[in-house]
Amino acid sequence: MGSVLAQAGRWQEAERAIHSISKEGNKAGALIELGTVLAQVGRWQEAERIWQDAEQVIRSFSRNGGQVWALTKLGNALAQAGRWQDAERVIHSIPHQESRGRAMKVLGSAFAQAECWQDAERVIHTIPHRESRVWALIELGSAFAQAERWQDAERVIRSIPQERSQVWALTKLGSAMAQAQRWQDAERIWQNAEGAIRSVSREGSKVETLSCLAGTLARHGEYDRMVSLVQGEWLHVASKDKALALFPLIFGLIPHNPDLGIAFYDAFTWAAMFLRG
User: Fold this and answer.
1) Quick one: CA dihedral 197, 201, 206, 208, positive or negative?
2) How far apart are CA 91 and CA 109, in angstroms?
3) Containing H/E element for 101?
4) Is 15 domain-assigned?
5) Closest of 203, 212, 215 to residue 244, by C-alpha
6) Would you call 93 helix, strand, or coil by DSSP?
7) How many CB atoms lie within 10 A of CB 186?
8) Which of 14, 181, 205, 266 is the most buried (most CB within 10 A)?
9) In angstroms, what CA-CA distances link 201 with 158, 163, 164, 191, 207?
10) Tens of pLDDT, residues 142-186
């Protein structure tokens, strides 16, 4: 009822209806949504008062799990509305580390969308949950690339503390550079991505990153580099299964050079015969 009244612009009636809700979680969620609607129509003072009411309700929760969810929702709403200080304060009070990390990721993305680059980096580099920090850095690197801040994009991507994700982000950065006709930079970045693949320890992850890079090279017509990539990896395999796992990487070459595809097939057949299984 409260959301229906809010959408109709009947703010006071919506607020009264929401405050009559008995379940604390539902009441907090409805207040947060009402504050968001008020902010969207420029009624900032009322929005801030409603969000303060929501926070008071949340702080009175008897169950910690519900408080984590509600604080995350409130922090995200404040971040999306550009209420940076309040958003940071609320998010840092989330007692669950993983949930706090996800909320900090949303805040960092909101800073980046507003081109508040220093604040975005500051928040993202302090995310306690590693997986959330990795994805936030990937998104920030992509945002820098979209803004054609190439050096910042590369710097942020190189700070990603996970080899597989760093290779993936470098590959995408090279693609963005190629689309912007920055071919020399794209070549350099792809070369760096190829080198970084050797640091990926898990075999399944290595094949995934190789596939991503090979596909990107094929889409941009970098067939010689793609051949070199596959050949270089094939020289290091030590089993039939690992050799055959690389075979799909050259599928993109076959329409452009059927003879090369046949040669690769013969080579992999040889590998299947002589490498240990």
Assistant:
1) negative
2) 14
3) helix 97-113
4) no
5) 203
6) coil
7) 21
8) 14
9) 17, 9, 9, 19, 11
10) 999 999 999 999 999 999 988 889 988 999 999 999 999 998 998
